[in-house]
Design goal:
globular; alpha/beta; Nucleotidyltransferase, domain 5; 231 residues; seven-stranded parallel beta sheet; Rossmann fold
Length: 231
């Protein structure tokens, strides 16, 4: 929903899922990478874990260098809600400086309740069995999560591929419609390991047509950081 707006990204490690298209490195390390200057592509290594004071210092520095450039700060993963207790302490302080955006796999609804009052935007994934390989067991978790997430400005994202079928799209739309059919739904074309798009244009448009007949705001947006070769 915030595609095109510039954000500060904080990537947390570990995840409770194992999606087969995931391109994130989850190995634990004693250091983390910090971009030395926003947008430079040059990184320095800092000892982990970073404390809240350091994160706020970076935010303050970047906003001083580029006033007005950053729309929000996005906490992503992995699955950031695995660190919900820490985020519950961080978000009220960070939110004094910049709005909070949470990118999540949409399965940890109990953890969400601990931070929802301090989150401005949520990008919630729903994991399709055809692309994620996670099976059918997540639908109930996604429904419970979305019921909680609607307290924020929430949108739903699904990764679609050539094998994604109408039944999966209709299941996603069922869950959205039970909560609020105006919640934006984003179809993100699967990116293959070699960088190619894993779905034909015709199939992508057919899936959008199915979804558009069920919910009111359906958009197709590719992985922007892949297109721009960022991170």
């Amino acid at each position: 929903m915030l595609a095109g707006r510039r954000q500060i990204f904080v990537r947390l490690t570990e995840c409770n899922l194992d999606c087969r298209y995931c391109d994130t490195e989850f190995n634990k390390s004693d250091t983390c990478r910090l971009e030395s200057r926003p947008g430079s592509g040059h990184f320095t290594d800092l000892p982990q874990p970073l404390n809240l004071q350091k994160i706020i210092a970076v935010i303050d520095d970047w906003q001083s260098r580029l006033p007005g450039a950053h729309h929000s700060i996005s906490f992503t993963g992995g699955e950031p809600l695995l660190e919900a207790d820490s985020l519950a302490e961080w978000f009220p302080e960070i939110r004094k400086f910049i709005p909070i955006h949470l990118e999540t796999n949409g399965t940890l609804n109990i953890a969400l309740t601990t931070v929802i009052d301090q989150v401005d935007f949520i990008s919630m994934d729903m994991k399709l069995p055809s692309t994620s390989g996670c099976g059918l067991q997540l639908w109930e978790s996604h429904q419970l999560f979305l019921k909680q997430a609607v307290a924020s400005d929430v949108s739903v994202k699904i990764v679609v591929g050539e094998s994604t079928d109408s039944a999966e799209i209709n299941k996603v739309c069922d869950i959205i419609a039970l909560v609020d059919r105006s919640i934006p739904l984003f179809l993100q074309p699967l990116t293959l390991p070699d960088g190619r798009i894993g779905i034909s244009t015709g199939q992508l448009l057919r899936l959008q047509e199915i979804a558009s007949s069920r919910v009111s705001d359906v958009r197709v947006i590719p992985q922007m950081h892949k297109l721009l070769r960022l991170l």
